[in-house]
Amino acid sequence: MKTDTLITIGMLSKITHVHKKALEYYDKIGILPPTYVDDENGYRYYSAKHIYLVEAIRECAELSIPLKQLKNFISEDGSQIDLLPLMDLGTTLATARLKEVEQHLATLKSMKEEISYSEDFLSQESLQYATVSEKTYWLTPYAGNQVSTDYHVHLAQTKEQMRKLGIVPGYEAGMLTFWKEGQPYSYSYQSIDKKNATIKKKQVVVFPETTFALMKSPNTNHQAVSETFERLRGETYEKAIFQTEIFAKKYDFESPLFEMKSTLPEASLLKQLQQMV
């Protein structure tokens, strides 16, 4: 075949400002088929149409359209590209990325609100009270310590298990202990994104709106924390203790503080938890 009217891959690289290695990769995955390949030396030759095709490929790359999928929209000889369905694919992918970004922004907003709440919480010295709206959590029996490596491994495994089931973990996590007839029962808890709140799994528990007594503490011994609540309130009662790390403006990895929440006497949430065992 005469190559007088064709251009080499090196020339195509100079014209399009795309590295030769990238053009070779495009050929390898089937989206830039050369017009002619010399059997003797393996040189690739291209025609003018490929200049436009390379520009289209670059545009798709900038739009984050997977290059390997372009093969489905390009003719065998590279002379035609099916633009409308390709743009439909790009729109679908961009919409999915936008949704993911919106989820990240929502998480960041919630975390900033939590930091603001924590700063206010840390400024208070006395026992506090707060009503927490209905929330959905993933509960797993766990009797470890929240400041241990084992806890963080456990939490990572829990989140991975949730994601495999299509459940999006929220940002709130911690430890929970409740008592029934004097016997303690301990769990880890991980909040669930609102869109997954109706999923039916034995690990998924919806906590009703509940009023808690709150205090900050470096102590993660729930029995000792329970006794402190009783001393501050001046009464002995069965309760559920929720423990979560406090994330202030500056977080101390070596000496974390915890928000401890205790249900009040006869709380419906405690009765709900006690029915689990």
UniProtKB/TrEMBL annotation:
Gene Ontology MF: a single term: DNA-binding transcription factor activity
SUPFAM superfamilies referenced in this protein's UniProt entry, alphabetically: Putative DNA-binding domain
Alphabetically ordered keywords of this record: DNA-binding, Repressor, Transcription, Transcription regulation
Source organism, top-level taxon: Bacteria
Location of the HTH merR-type domain: 6-76
TM regions (residue ranges): none
SMART domains associated with the record: HTH_MERR (SM00422)
DNA-binding in keyword set: yes
Protein name per Swiss-Prot or TrEMBL: HTH merR-type domain-containing protein
Species whose genome carries this gene: Enterococcus phoeniculicola ATCC BAA-412
